[in-house]
Write a structure and sequence with these properties.
Layout lengths: L8 H18 L2 H14 L7 E4 L20 H19 L9 E5 L2 E3 L8 E4 L9 E4 L6 H4 L7 E3 L1 H15 L4 E5 L8 H8 L1 H10 L1 H24 L9 E2 L2 E2 L21 E4 L9 H16 L4 E4 L9 H4 L5 E6 L5 H8 L4 E4 L13 H18 L3 E5 L10 H15 L2
Parallel strand pairs: 1-14, 2-7, 10-11, 11-12, 12-13, 13-14
Antiparallel strand pairs: 3-6, 4-5, 8-9
């Protein structure tokens, strides 16, 4: 645990100025209006399509030192970074973001994990950008390799959580409320497997040794299930999510009856599921190795957001088996007509516009508008509740104005529906 040294007067003043500005924005009536529109969308009764922007290339965004950190203490710099990004986004590309009147303080929860460290080589094009290329080493070839997988153990350092909260109160009392944040679980089975084996080796092994891969996946599902049990038992799950996978999570359907904020349950929150590695597998393999395999996880949660970059337009029959699925990702690689015809009004059509349009040598208003309008038109024809979720923004060619302009166009299209 860190020694509990309170922030310096200078750092407190910096944080207080930023937090005051965030609090003023959070108090605007538009925030509750946006929450209500997200609730309507998530209830499949949208006012209009909603728009969010996340996973931004922040290394390319700094204009006029708006994002330049000035605090000295490392913990304060983390809060300062969060506040500056919130203010920057509200100023330049707010779309349908909601600015909350509180600051989330992560509880000091430790997850021992599965005991497998990733072995990889990385390729770096821009040292300031966290997006890099990965070449993974296959660590699962023998039966003995399976025995290396450990069951995750969850522990909570209550003293460290208390320390974090004391620092947060020192910094934010009088401006923003302090909200202790539990764990928002990430439960992908195939993302870690792809990192332990490489996507290519994992896919070939699925073909050549399906029983081996079935056993590997089952061990992860068992580990995740035990992890969730521990989080519930220790009261360490999150609750009242603002976001689930980059999109508004506001809903009147959660938490479930019997909710206790001291003991949140999986049925009180959203789950985010995906199997990006399965983009090219058959619907039958997707059903067996992802949907059926992960059903013990899916069925625990109150609501489910499913999908990411994986195209699901031709796998909707399988996705429909997930209990309480409410939003379904439609990535840049789907056939939008097929996806909309499958979704209709049954789920939120969670469109991921192509971020490559911000990375070309020149930025085209016309191309962006046509790209978004095509989605709006097809969803209107099939009665799909729609959201635009721009994410995975690796670069804007160091022209942040491109992202600002994309936001203006997206809101114009959404408000014109």
């Amino acid at each position: 645990m860190k020694v509990n040294i309170m922030p310096s007067i200078r750092d407190k003043e910096i944080i207080a100025r930023l937090a005051t500005r965030v609090a003023e924005i959070a108090a605007l009536p538009v925030q509750e209006h946006k929450r209500e529109m997200w609730r309507r969308l998530n209830a499949l009764k949208p006012v209009r399509p909603m728009v969010t922007i996340d996973q931004v290339c922040w290394n390319e965004m700094n204009i006029d030192d708006e994002l330049t950190l000035t605090c000295e203490d490392g913990e304060c710099r983390g809060y300062e970074d969060h506040l500056r990004r919130t203010l920057y986004q509200w100023k330049h590309f707010p779309v349908d973001m909601v600015v909350e009147p509180f600051i989330r303080i992560q509880k000091a929860v430790h997850n021992s994990g599965f005991g497998i460290a990733v072995k990889e080589e990385v390729a770096v094009l821009d040292a300031t950008n966290g997006v890099v290329g990965h070449a993974f080493t296959n660590q699962f070839e023998t039966e003995a390799d399976l025995e290396r997988i450990q069951l995750p153990v969850i522990t909570h350092n209550a003293a460290e959580t208390t320390r974090r909260l004391e620092v947060a109160h020192e910094l934010f009392d009088g401006t923003l409320s302090v909200f202790p944040q539990g764990v928002d679980p990430y439960l992908s089975v195939w993302d870690p497997i792809s990192c332990w084996m490489s996507v290519e080796d994992a896919l070939y092994t699925l073909i050549d040794r399906p029983d081996y891969m079935r056993e590997l996946a089952q061990r992860l599902v068992k580990g995740y299930s035990g992890m969730l049990d521990q989080l519930e038992e220790q009261g360490l799950l999150c609750h009242h999510q603002s976001l689930v996978h980059c999109t508004g999570a506001y809903t009147d359907e959660l938490p479930a009856p019997g909710f206790d904020p001291e003991r949140p349950r999986t049925k009180d929150i959203w789950m985010f599921g995906l199997a990006q590695m399965f983009s090219t597998v058959s619907p039958a393999m997707f059903e067996e190795f992802e949907i059926d395999m992960c059903m013990p996880l899916f069925e625990r949660f109150g609501l489910v957001y499913y999908g990411c970059c994986d195209p699901l337009d031709r796998k909707m029959a399988q996705v429909r088996k997930i209990p309480n699925v409410r939003k379904i990702s439609m990535s840049p690689w789907v056939d939008e007509e097929i996806g909309a015809a499958e979704i209709k009004g049954d789920y939120v059509y969670s469109r991921k516009p192509n971020p490559a349009l911000l990375a070309w040598f020149t930025f085209s208003d016309k191309d962006v508008r046509e790209h978004l309008q095509t989605t709006a038109n097809v969803c209107a024809r099939y009665g799909c509740p729609l959201e635009f979720i721009l994410k995975d923004i690796s670069t804007v060619k160091y022209e942040p104005q491109r992202l600002w302009r994309w936001a203006e166009i997206a809101m114009d299209v959404a408000e014109g529906v």
